[in-house]
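Researcher: I'm preparing a figure for a lab meeting and need a structural model of a single chain. I don't have an experimental structure, so a prediction will have to do for now. The sequence is pasted below. Please return the structure as C-alpha cells so I can convert it later.
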Amino acid sequence: MSQQVEFGLPSAVSHAERRLLLVFDGGNAPGYSSVAVALTEEGVRRGYEVWAATEGFRSLTDDATSEPRFERLIVGRSERYALLSQGIPVRSMGRRVLDAGSDFRSERYRGFLQRDKRRLAAETIRAQGFTHVVCVGGNGTLEGAKALSADLDPKPQLGFINVSVDNDLSGDRAIGFLTGVEAGATIARGLLEDAYTHKRVYLLEMMGNLGGRHVLHCGVAARAHLVVLPFFQFPADVIEEIAQALSKVDYALVVVAEGYERERRRGTGESASEYFRKQLEAAGLRDSPTRRVIAEPFSRYLRGVRPAFADVSTAYVKASQLFSAFDEGKTEIMPYMVAASDVGLRRFDEITREDGVEPSFLPLLERLGLPKLRVLLRELQSRGHGR
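Model: Understood. Here is the structure written out cell by cell.
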C-alpha cells in the first residue's frame, strides 16, 4: 500500500533569520519561472530561506485547494533529500530558468477583493514567519500587494516584480512583454505570408483588452496593413474607407485587439475580429469563394511560450535590484528596467496603470493609404493618447 507523505507548514521547521515568500498571481505570461529562479538564486546567495505559495494569494487563505500550500525553493539538488526527510516540501529551481508557464500561481484570485480574505492572508504570513514577501505578476497582482500591505502587522518587507504580456504599468518594461511580441509577431507574420500566397484578407485577433501595446508592437513588427487598437471607435465613413481599401488590394493582414468595441459586443459572444469583419461586410467587403475574408480568433498560444533570453536577463537584473533594496531596509518597492541604462526602483505609490500606447507608433498603424483614418490617428497623436 502506498503512503502519502504529509508535509509540514513553514512554521513547523526552524528557519533562517530572513524567510522570503514568493507569491505569483495573475494571467500567465512568459517569464514567471525565470523570475522564480532568479529570486531563488539571489535570495539563497544572500542568506534567505525562500518559499513559494503554490496557488498565489489563494494559498494564504482558507480558499486554498491544493496541498502543500507552500514549497521551499532551493537552487540545486544537493540538499533536497535531506529537506524532504524532514517533511519539508522542496523544489530544485536551478535548471528551470527557461520553463514555460508557472508552477506557483493562481489566475486572478477574486477572493482577495474581500477584506476578510486579505486579513486572513496577513495572519498566515505572520504565523508562518515570513520576514519578506515578493509578489509577482501584472497590475492586478500589484493592487493585491498594495491592499495586503494595509493589513500586515508586523509588516514584512514587501516587493513586487512586474511580469505581464500587456506591459500596462507605468515606468517599467514588464518581463514577458518582449517574448510576447516575438511570439505574437511570428503568428501575425505567418498569416501575412499565407494571405499573400492565397490572396486572402485575414483579420487576426490579438491580446489587448484595455492596453494596446502588445497588438501594436506585434502588428507593426509583422508589417500588418492595419492595426485596430482596443480604444478605437471608427465612424461609419472610416469603416467604409477601410472596406474599400481592403477590397482593392491583392491580400492583407489586419490585427484587431481583443478589446475592440467590447461594450457593443457585450453579451453577444462575438469576438473582436468577427465583429470587425461584420462591420466591414456591411460596408461592402464580403467573403466569397474567390475572395476569402477570414476572422481569426484569439490564440493563447503566446502565453505559454518559453521566455526569450532578453526577458530572462531582465529577471536577474530586477532580482538583484530588489534584494539590494531590501538590504537597505526599503519596502513596498518595484525594481524597474526600461533599458540597460534606465534601471532603478519605484515605490508602490509611484506606480500607475498605463493602458495607452506610444504616440510615436500611431503613424505606423496603417499602410493602406487611408486619409480619413490618418486624420483620426493624428488627432490621437496630438493628444498624446495614453500618456
